[in-house]
Design goal:
With 459 residues, this protein is of the alpha+beta class. The protein is built from 8 helices and 24 strands. It has helices at 5-14, 21-44, 85-105, 123-131, 179-205, 213-226, 233-250, 422-425; strands at 3-4, 54-59, 75-82, 116-117, 155-163, 166-176, 253-260, 263-270, 273-275, 282-284, 291-297, 302-307, 318-324, 329-335, 345-346, 351-358, 362-374, 379-388, 395-397, 402-405, 408-415, 420-421, 432-441, 444-457. Strands 15, 16, 17, 18, 19, 20, 21, 22, 23 and 24 form a 10-stranded mixed beta sheet that branches. Strands 7, 8, 9, 11 and 12 form a 5-stranded antiparallel beta sheet that branches. Strands 2-5-6-3 form a 4-stranded antiparallel beta sheet. Mean pLDDT is 83; it is low at 1-5, 13-40, 42-46 and 110-146.
């Protein structure tokens, strides 16, 4: 019957194998070398002398038990050998464990993904050593798994034999192992194997929907612990899952939500997904002119406050944000302009009057275009404009309340507030005007004085 390699691995843990198996393997190899050396020497001398007789030097009983080298129901009968009594004893115990593993492996029924192998040979020792420290078993109700030990053997017999100058100890064990204990171990293994598969699949199913960095890192850790337990296609699935999560972590971007001179709010994004983390970012100012005042979590990201009063007008002014995760580092530079909140209003373009309705003497309706410029990048709101003519009444534009942000030219097109006498207000009569532009910055009232600003009219 084919043996299930995976069953050997997980069951070895359930059997609670101790680290001494490595020593046993060494002692067994040492014994084999002694025996091999003796055999080689014997063959060499065969033509010259008769084979040396094997003599019993010592034993723990006067009479050799009858069960030795027999097969009995509900028992495992093994013989261990070694250069010392302790080595032979440990070797016998190891053989008991090997027999139990083989027996259970032949009776399990698990996933079709499991890899089978006709013989496991010396790999059993390495399986024991590799998997004795795996995750805790869920089969504590199986009393047999409390440990396989010499004091649980029903009977034992050891003997010390000498052949020439070579001494070998043989340790015989009669160890109880019933069908009931077999069924308990098989059920325990199948249950544990299903749980491992379910644990793997649960993580794989949620990779693309997990949006918390710490959960992603935890899933990687779990998959890394599962990886050595699989020798079938689940091993490949586990490796692919680990790489997928790491790739997601590396693809995180830092995206600004709002940014002003002194405050930055941003989110972590993978495509359209918002990613969160409870790990505070590292925030620096490479030019060392700004002071970082606060780093606080926002509803979906992080908010940074800073003060740049000691910074000069430099295109390299920036706030650097860096998130260091277990499997990825994500960073972004937020550039800032120390003048972006400042406002300095002025006009350099002509004011344009366009008549939409007129008769022979009056413009009954029309539009007036103002091009107002801002030297800096701040926000301002135009409240009212007054134009003063040298030989005509002023024109007053009230309740404009138009807001503009940024550096450069901003256009306001306003309806004429009243009829205009075509002769008085033609640009042939008045080529320039004076006046005032009233605006506010965050509620603070400011005034720009117009002086000899060019005017053009369509009549």
């Amino acid at each position: 019957m084919k043996k299930t390699l995976q069953s050997i691995m997980l069951l070895a843990f359930m059997l609670g194998i101790v680290a001494s198996t490595s020593l046993v393997a060494q002692n067994v190899m040492s014994t084999k070398k002694v025996q091999a050396g003796s055999a080689t020497e014997s063959v060499t001398k065969q033509k010259k002398q008769k084979p040396q007789k094997i003599k019993e030097v010592d034993s723990n009983k006067n009479k050799r038990p009858k069960w030795i080298n027999t097969i009995q129901k509900d028992y495992i009968i093994v013989t261990g050998s070694g250069a010392t009594l302790d080595a032979s004893q440990e070797n016998a115990l190891l053989k008991v464990k090997e027999n139990i593993v083989r027996s259970v492996a032949e009776n399990i029924s698990v996933s079709s993904e499991m890899t089978t192998k006709e013989a496991m040979g010396d790999n059993v020792n390495s399986f024991f050593q590799n998997f004795e420290q795996t995750t805790q078993s869920q089969t504590g109700d199986v009393s047999f798994l409390k440990g396989i030990a010499l004091n649980k053997a029903e009977d034992y017999y050891w003997e010390e034999l000498k052949q020439g100058n070579n001494i070998t100890f043989y340790y015989h064990l009669l160890y109880p192992f019933s069908d009931l204990e077999m069924r308990k171990l098989v059920m325990a293994f199948e249950k544990a194997d299903r749980e491992l598969t379910e644990q793997l699949q649960d993580i794989l199913n949620k990779i693309e929907t997990t949006t918390i960095v710490e959960d992603m890192e935890s899933d990687i850790t779990t998959l890394e612990k599962l990886l050595p337990k699989f020798l079938d296609t689940r091993k490949t699935k586990t490796e692919v899952g680990i790489n997928q999560i790491k790739s997601r972590l590396k693809s995180i971007n830092i995206v600004a939500v709002t940014k002003t001179n002194g405050s930055i709010e941003y989110e972590l994004k993978i495509g359209s997904q918002t990613i969160t983390t409870n790990r505070k970012p590292q925030v620096t100012n490479p030019t060392k002119c700004a002071t970082i005042n606060g780093i606080e979590p926002s509803r979906t990201g992080w908010r940074i406050s800073f003060e740049a009063k000691y910074c000069y007008d430099d295109p390299n002014n920036l706030i650097r944000v860096k998130h260091t995760f277990r499997h990825a580092t994500v960073s972004h530079d937020f550039y800032f302009d120390i003048d972006e909140d400042k406002v300095q209003v002025f006009m350099h373009a002509p004011i344009i009057f366009s008549a939409t309705e007129q008769d022979d003497s009056n413009v009954t309706s029309g539009k007036v275009t103002f091009t107002i410029s801002n030297k800096y990048g701040g926000t301002f709101t135009v409240d009212r404009i007054i134009l003063n003519y040298a030989k005509a009444p002023p024109i007053m534009f009230e309740n404009i309340t138009q807001t503009f942000t940024g550096k450069g030219d901003h256009t306001i097109i306003i309806d004429l507030p009243n009829e205009l006498d075509k002769k008085l207000y033609t640009s042939r009569m008045h080529t320039v005007v004076d006046g005032f532009i009233y605006y506010n910055i965050k509620g603070k009232q400011e005034t720009y004085k117009l002086y000899q600003n060019k005017v053009t009219t369509s009549w």
